[in-house]
Every structure is written in C-alpha cells, then in structure tokens.
Amino acid sequence: MTSFLAGARAAALTAAAVLLTAGSALAAEAAPAAPQQVNISEMTRGYTYYNRPGADWAAHDKDLVDCAVEAAKTRSVDDQINNGAYNGIAGMLIGQAFGNAYNRATFAAALENCMVVKNWRVVQLPDAEGKAILATGAYNIREKIGPWIGADQPYGAIVRVWNNDAAHASTHRYELRPGRKVDGSLSLVAISETPYTPAPQADLFDRTQRTTLDKKWPLRWMKPTELGRGPAEGGVVIVHIQGMSFTNGIGVSFMRMGPDASTPASFVDHAPDLLSAFVPLLGAKKEGKYLALVVPPGRWRIAGMGIMPVVNFCLGAPSFEVKPGDVIYAGSFDMGGAELGPDLNLDGPRAWLAGAPQAATLKAAEYTNGWTISCGDNSIYALEIPGAPFREGYTWGGAARAAPAVTPAAPAAPAGGR
Hints:
Layout: H1 2-22, E1 47-51, H2 57-71, H3 77-82, H4 89-93, H5 96-100, H6 105-117, E2 121-125, H7 127-134, H8 138-145, E3 157-160, H9 186-190, E4 235-242, E5 251-256, H10 266-269, E6 274-278, E7 289-295, E8 298-305, E9 311-312, E10 317-322, E11 327-334, H11 347-352, H12 358-361, E12 362-364, E13 368-371, E14 379-380
Parallel strand pairs: 4-11, 9-14, 11-12
Antiparallel strand pairs: 1-2, 2-3, 4-7, 5-6, 5-8, 8-9, 8-10, 10-13
Helix pairs in contact: 2-6
C-alpha cells in the first residue's frame, strides 16, 4: 500500500495545483484586508503565498509537500456522512473518494494550518496582481515570488502567523462544511515544478477497525468514591471542563500514545486509549464539571477539540505521563475563555475529592509541548500550553525562533520596485 500512496500523492499534488489555477477566475476584484477573526477551519481567501524569513525554495517545497500529505488525511463532516469515510483508510484513499480528496476545502485549510504551524507566514497579494501572476504558470510563479518567500519583509500583506490560535475563544475553530476558498495559492501551484518527493511513510493504520478492550478497565466517568475500583496498575486522571457552547465546543479529548504515530495503543495492549472529556450542554452548569477516570499508564496527549467536527492537534500537542498509582489533575479547560488553559491549580479538584484517599496524592500534570502523531479528522492544527517545555527535537510553533509574530500590514512594494 505504501507504493500506491507514494504515486497517488504525486498525482494528487499536481491535480491540486491545476484545480487552484482553474479556480482563480472566481476571485473577487477587491483589495485584500487582514481578517478580523482567525479562522482555522478555512483557507485564507485570495491570492497568497508562504513566507518564512531566511527560507529558500528547498525548505518551502519540502514543507509544502509534507503538509499536503498530512492535509490529504482530513475529511469534512459532510464527506464522512455522505461519501463513506467510515469504510476504512484503504477505502478512503482508493477510487473516487481519493480522487476527490484534493477538491475539498478541508484539504486547503489543513495545508495552510500545517504551514502556519511550521512558522510559514501567509502573505496575501492584491487580487488583480495575484490573478495576473497566477496566470503566468508554475515556472514563472517561482521566478516571481522567489525573492519574497525568504524575505524579512515580503511583498504583500502578512495575514496569518503562528499564534497558538486554537487556544483562543476568539478563533473560529470549527466548520461542518468549510467554504471552498481555493482562488489562488501561488505556493501550491509553484510546487508542480519542484523535484521534491515526500519521505516514505509507514502504511496508514485503519483506525476504523475495532479491537476488544480488556473489561477490567472502566469506560465511564467515575465519582470520587469509585476511583479505588480500577486496576491497581492504573492511574487516575481528573479533568475540569467549563465554558461549553456550540461555538467553542464542549470539551477536549486525550489519547494515550501508541508505539508509533500510526498505531493506536489499544491495538497493542487492549487497554483504553481515548479519554473524551466532554460535557453535554443540556444541564451544564456555569461552574463547569469535574470528570475522573482510572486509565492505563502511559503518555496521554491532548488529542483534539470538538466531537463533530474535530480539530486534531496532530501537528504538536501537550502531553503528560501517567504512572501506576498516579492521581493526575490534567487541569481546568475553559472552552469559552480568552485562553483555553489548562488551569492547574489544585484547590478545586482537592475540594471535589474531599474524603477520598486520592486527594492526598493528587498532583498537577507535568505537560510537555510538541508531541506529534499521524493526522486525520476534520481539521488539523497544533496546541501549546504557554510556559510548558517543548519535546526535544520539536521545532515548530512556539518552539521556533526563526519567524517572530508580525502584525499584519498593508501591502507595500519591496525596495527597488517589483
């Protein structure tokens, strides 16, 4: 299957470039403006390219092709319901479903999010000028925007930079059916002239398969008086969720990491590997709710937000270790707060555990940012906990120092003219 995927990726990237070129005629003839609200569910409208100070074409093409591979794994909720996404990874990638994958707005949004996480800035050109450049073809586009992709001050308006946006309630996080905003990605069209090919990947694991879980592990949230009933080798994880809404979501999910990026832990040891900290809106209280569960030991990462649609933090997420006997407070997450959190103050969970022996050994999770996994779901991005250290070797998002945040500015011609 790996060889099939390698060939399909190359063909799909070319098809995507053709699609974006053809779609350019639909662009509105209006001057670009910096968006008032960051939207991680849709691609930036208009004619854009990617810029990272000091970068060259080799870095640009490598990251863009690698991001296209991850973006190809996303599917909209509409696709999942109507086009048989639950027939398995093989079924998703073969035939018409695979051919249409690169005609999805989810792909465009995921590609952009991935590049932003890798600290590329999204630069937008005036529509008339962008349309004219796009019409010249891939080779000429590379000649035209080549001096801009690594410039400290690129030509155009910088409209998106990495800013840990999923953690902010002001961000538009979810979209059931993203709009098709594919009217001119100059960077994506330009890669049809690159010799770069993606590195070989392991076969995608079919996550729609099921495995039998060991019945000794509880699967429902527990009261403080029930926490001693789980297996002795397990640990307790406590989460607090508040600020739930249709707009911002009703919680976060945690996933226990398996032996590699594509294999779920449950398929190895038959122990649960998903912890869904969701609080239904019906009957939800303003002060939020505590959720607790006895879980298998291992490294648990914040996997995503939302139920349908889902934002998958495959490009970098905080995680913490659970050892046998641990009682870990994963924190309070405010879905509607200016910052998601987590707040790791132990006063609240200790009061909730009052009278239970777990109160005496409760400790805050020790998060590390930058844990990656194979992508998928409806949208992809990264999430960071400010102040937490980064996993060794992780260089994206806040771990990078090459691309500081830049306030979006009005378009201006580079020195010496264009």
